[in-house]
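We include the pair:
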Amino acid sequence: MITLSNLESGKEKKQQRVGRGNGSNRGKNSGKGHKGQNKRGHVRIGFEGGQKALIRRIPKFRGFKQRDKKNQLHFSLDIIAGYFESGTEVTMAMLHELNIITNLTKKVRILKARSEMSKKITFAQDANIHLTKGAKEYMNK
């Protein structure tokens, strides 16, 4: 039975001796193969034999990600009007329910309509919904 008192010490595996004859299984080329740069000396990591190295072929990723990015979406007035009936007051919650915006969207900017609108919609006095000057003028006419 093996107990702590009669355990053998953790013997380390002997290092393989290379270049000691063909009978040793590591003779002649000592496990390095035939000729070539890898046999004769050290090749630095990432060296591809003179070919442009992968690290130099791929583009640099410049810039940075803004930590306090303002998740803001822009919509044209006629696009938003297409989702709602005439006379509806639009809120952020309604936009979210229709999957027009996501949870991450903090502000919505409504831009002037690109085409004529037949519907009249209004927007809740919400700090997160901002109408541009052109959109306000278009809605008031």
User: Anything to note?
Assistant: The chain has a mean pLDDT of 86.
